[in-house]
Amino acid sequence: MFKVNKLTDxxxxxxxxxxxxxxxxSSQRIAERTGIPMPTVAKxxxxxxxxxxxASTRGAGGGYSLCRPAKDISxxxxxxxxxxxxxxxxxxxxxxxxxNIQKLCPVQGKWNRVNTAVRSALSxxxxxxxxxxxxxxxRKTFDAPAVVTPAVVTSAVVTEVx
Amino acid sequence: MFKVNKLTDxxxxxxxxxxxxxxxxSSQRIAERTGIPMPTVAKxxxxxxxxxxxASTRGAGGGYSLCRPAKDISxxxxxxxxxxxxxxxxxxxxxxxxxNIQKLCPVQGKWNRVNTAVRSALSxxxxxxxxxxxxxxxRKTFDAPAVVTPAVVTSAVVTEVx
DNA sequence: AGTAAACAGGACCCAATTAGTCCCGATTGG
DNA sequence: CCAATCGGGACTAATTGGGTCCTGTTTACT
Lengths: 162, 162
Known about the structure:
The structure is a homodimer. The N and C termini of chain A lie far apart (38 Å). Chain A has helices spanning 6-20, 27-34, 38-50, 75-83, 110-123, 127-135, and strands spanning 54-57, 63-66. In chain A, strand 1 (54-57) and strand 2 (63-66) form a beta hairpin. Chain A is elongated. The first copy, chain A, has a single domain (6-135), classed as Arc Repressor Mutant, subunit A (Orthogonal Bundle). By secondary structure, chain A is mainly alpha-helical. In chain A, helix 1 crosses helix 6. Chains A and B meet through helix 1, helix 4, helix 5 and helix 6 of A and helix 1, helix 4, helix 5 and helix 6 of B. Chain A binds a DNA duplex through helix 3.
């Protein structure tokens, strides 16, 4: 199966949730809202922060917020933040790995075209697009916070009820 | 790192090699030509056969050959043959996995757009394109068969010397 | 027929990657 | 000062993927 990390999936969930109500919120809060385990959220947010997608405020009352408007954050950005450079094979141009037989590898360079195509495809969809879809998806309200076990969560944002 | 399997990389190498001289060849022979370990080649070819990318002939003198012209085999085909359906997240439409919270997952369906974009990007490059590039790459000849350890091979086709 | 070459399918193991947890130090607001 | 919160990184557990092997079937050739 050709797929993104589970963490990347989580990342979109978190970011979309933040984008919907643009306020500062703590990892703790994010964990509660999304159902993703708190330590995992913390780890995730560090990656997103290092990649410059979210801004962080330390200390009591601190937390995270989007660094740029949602329309300026693409799926490619998110993937790169969590998984590193998008390079379909080890010997592609943006890869930091090194192909040991580069001099004699006839396929070398050919994947770059594919990489570029994929990268641009992933750059075309932004968080804003996803937020839009979410907004029109038909919001649901729950009596109790919908608690889902981590293993089960794939892309869940628990709609705010408080 | 967002990347394809090593097996998928191998697959392109093998298929490109077959495409270059369109004749039937055994797993054994393919292994020799590419430097990929024989058992791995065997496994790989089974996948490619099951996916309908190569035709197989059993018995002595048997082997594999392309099922369709190289220009009709895309990178997407190869990836799908080796890794299964291209579905970036578990809950995407072509996925056989099931998203347990589909009813309340607001992101659901949104990745499909991304999936489609990626899929079409991957469909645009065919084996024929890659073969062309290989042909003009500047063929090299070696005195001895270039033996590369499996761990090192990323995308190698050993140019025929016999 | 008999034998050897080759594919088909699947079980299995080991290594590599990824997911997830935890700890400790730094920062900041009350 | 204390509590809340981020930052970095070490560590463990779980999952996946790469690779091997075995057993059966098909086919060519003698």
